[in-house]
Amino acid sequence: MPFSEADIPDLAGKTIIVTGGNSGIGKQTVAVLASKGAKVYLAARSEDKYKQALADIHNSHPDSVKAQIEFLKLDLSTAAGAKAAAEDFKSCVI
C-alpha cells in the first residue's frame, strides 16, 4: 500500500522534534510536518545550520513559511549535549 504526504493528517496542535533536521531526510521531514500544521523543532548542532535548512525548506515548501519551525540546539556527541537540549526543550514547552 503506497503512502505519500497526502496521507498525513492535519497536525495542528502537535509538537515534534526532528533530529538531524538540517539535512537529508530530516530536512524533508521538517518541511512536510510543518506544512501539515505541526510545531516542529529542528534539532541541529548550530544555529547557522538551522538557518540554512530553514531557507531551503521555505524555498522547497512555500507553504511552510507560515509554519512554526523552531531551532533546538542539539549535539548528541556527548551526554551533556543531549541533556542540555532536553532541558532547553522542556523550558520552551512548559
Automatic annotation (TrEMBL):
InterPro entries: NAD(P)-bd_dom_sf, SDR_fam
Molecular function terms, GO-annotated: protochlorophyllide reductase activity
Family the UniProt entry places it in: Belongs to the short-chain dehydrogenases/reductases (SDR) family.
EC category name: oxidoreductase
SUPFAM superfamilies reported in the protein's UniProt record: NAD(P)-binding Rossmann-fold domains
Keywords (A to Z) from UniProt: NADP, Oxidoreductase
Family matches, as Pfam families: adh_short
Entry's EC annotation: 1.3.1.33
Identification of the protein by name: Short-chain alcohol dehydrogenase
